[in-house]
Fold each of these.
Amino acid sequence: MEIFNTKKSLRNFLDSKSENVKVGFVPTMGALHEGHLSLVRCCRNQNEVVVVSIFVNPTQFNDKEDLANYPRTLDKDLELLRQEHVDVVFCPSVEEMYPEPDTRTFDLGGLDTTMEGAFRPGHFNGVVQIVTKLFEVVLPHRAYFGEKDFQQLTIIRYIVNQLNIPVQIVPCPIVREPDGLAMSSRNMLLGANERQAAPLISQVLFKAKDLKNSLSVSELKKWVVDQIDANPYLQTEYFEIVDDVKLQPVNSWEDPVAKVGCIAVRAGKIRLIDNIRF
Ligand code: PAF
């Protein structure tokens, strides 16, 4: 497994490969778990060259404390990636990725103003800044994103389309802990009480899917929030049922769109997100 810290060394390596090989790319912020590894495995199955980046991108953190506390486990991450037969890991410094401040502001078609975007102003602009920079260096044929970050996935699809970036975006399903909690690097930061409470989020989402036939959209939204907020360690920030392309709120089950219920919950100092298709 090759490890590169500079864009130039990564590019030199990739340029030395034949033009016919397919390059698959998994961008990450490290602190890898089975969710990331599922993306890597999917990427490994579909491409000749697998590139994984590990970079905690400062421009997507709207909260300095969150950035400072974000888990960093590089040695362990590299070991896990070695076991998955990854070809290349790109771990640049902040200076390498941002020699100058990135002043680009992207028009994300309003997809960035709801849900996560409303609670984390500037977050998606930062995500798009780094993902476009990484795509420019890696020039992948395919790039892999988890459906847990459903809004992020939707925004990446949108911007790739808007900017005509020649990459296929491959979505991968949410991977859950045995108790149902959606895997996230932030899970390791949960306190004991919050960790015990957190599986309630997915339990409620799964039950909500069953209740779809007996409650209206607005009744179901209220039911979900009530169930979660009844737990003293959890506090819902939002639960929205939206269509899966424009992320517009759905008001009726009769709306002829694919529906996704997206939730963000505070568990102590940690924010957890999850979603379910209805
Ligand atoms: O999903 C993530 O881990 C990050 O938002 C990403 C896509 C690696 C960009 O920093």
Amino acid sequence: MATDAQRIEELRRLIEHHNYLYYVKAEPEISDREFDRLYSELVELEKKHPELITPESPTQRVGGQPIEGFESVTHDIPMLSIDNTYNADELRAFDVRTRRFIGGDQEFDYVVELKVDGVAAKVIYENGALTLAATRGDGVTGDDISANIRTIGAIPLRLGTGGERDVPALLEARGEIFMTMEELARQNRIREKKKLGPLANPRNAAAGALKLLDPRECAKRHLSVFFYGLGVYEGPEIDYHHDVLETFVSLGLPVNPHWKLLSSIEEVIEFAEQWALKRARLPYQIDGLVVKVDSYALQSRLGRTAKAPRSMIAYKYPAEQAASKVLGIRVQVGKTGTLTPVADLEPVKLAGTTVKRASLHNFDEVKRKDIRVGDHVLVEKAGEIIPQVVAVVDAQREGRQEKLEPPDNCPSCGGPVARSPEEVYLRCTNLDCPAQLRERLRYFASRQAMDIEGLGPAVIDQLVDRAMVRDPADLYDLETGKVEKLERMGTKSSENLIKAIKASKSRGLERLLTALAIRHVGSTMAATLAGHFGSLERLMEADTGELESIKDVGCTVAASIVDFFASDQNRKVIEKLRKAGVSTIAKARSREGGELFEKTFVFTGTLEQMTRAEAENMVRDRGG
Ligand code: IVH
């Protein structure tokens, strides 16, 4: 018994030591297999002696149960933000300001660190044990993410593994939780298999992982961390920021190794220039550098503005760019006829993904930037997944192709193209345009609209090409016998499709209004309209005056709705839908009884488990 207890302690120390060598020192001494063997031995011994398990045991990183929600944590010392600079002169101006404030010719140093792109968080250790972790939140209060933080292998559950320094009674370490580019790519491969959209960038990926309610799921995201700052602290005196970084390392907290102590702003600028080139080779994304006055005495003299300390400044790199070549320019037709020029590009690696195309937005934009096929261009991803063509870099080449003129006719159906005076977009006005029809059907069947499972792009293309469907209402006349003759459709799948189409009849007015793809009417507006009118019939009778009297309905939306229902063709489609038995009545939402009644939610960015429209529907279904 005594020997088992001793071995358990020894194994824990060994595991912590090798974790430290791996994550903090980046100098592992044993292989992953040997590490796993130590870990398994500990798991086995703890199974035999469950009474010896403590929360600090490396086996206890992933807690038992998913949590219901995150508790709020008020920061004892606010987690401030930091001012940004974008070029060398702004850095020099910061230096001048700082020196003037400090006064005289007093010499001081700067610490320069890489600014890793992730999520700011703090971790609190009391007498060496991890007791709390929280997000920055709005700087005053954040979320208690202790359970998720414990799953990050690089975060020690107990301080002191490094050895040389005394463990402080209280230590709040602040740092950046992030995801490496390799892990992001791995996560996106998994998401693709699950038919989920890609995570746009490592910052979103880290934020999404930390917000997961189930720590077991968070553990699968393999997050990383670098610590860069001190919050609440009770321990041996520390007078310089560089000393904090060294203390962190010796206590076992990972610190980005590329920091430097420099004595002049010109050295800082040189450091920034070096990293502008080197940063592409880092396994994680940085968006700049942070420059900090090293002395804490000077830091506290400099104080802070309302939002940021005066002793620090961020130097931000421009969004990552890459050179590519325009191989072709296509014009895509959207569901309401909008014509969007899209550039096919020579594939190029940019901020972690391979870019093959970029939206050129509209023809004014193409003209302004004078983008032509064959041009060498600069593409940029400004923090998001959709790349932009920034500029043409080589316009003088021989044999440069002709300018791309805005088309007079729709590239899909040849129909007339119009441009309303207040808009930059061109639009195909042919209501029978097959490209529009395809997009409309896709949207009609999508999860946020009529949610027809099995009606994917391949089936839609065939239905349109064979003229089996001329408008969304035709879907409800389809029969198994005909559908099973389509390519890659068997009896079973066509039966399922017909069943799914039938099931969509009872989705209710809100979904139907979304599905009709009326311009300016998305799922939120559809919910407002369904709630107000209750039936499609009532909505169709409304004039702009009545529509505009509704909260959130402006004149553009009102005009668009009236126009839509004034069209004979649209009225015919609606009549066919009604005859087919599609519900045009609003579903009674259990609003007042709903658990989210009178609560407002805003969804932005990419969600982990569902689309934004689905999340919005879930909130509305609960009365929100
Ligand atoms: S110091 C008073 N150092 O950048 C705020 N921040 O734009 C002190 N960040 O919220 C922040 N690396 O999330 C600091 N080495 C570093 C950093 C860093 C990344 C993030 C952090 C902060 C944001 C400010």
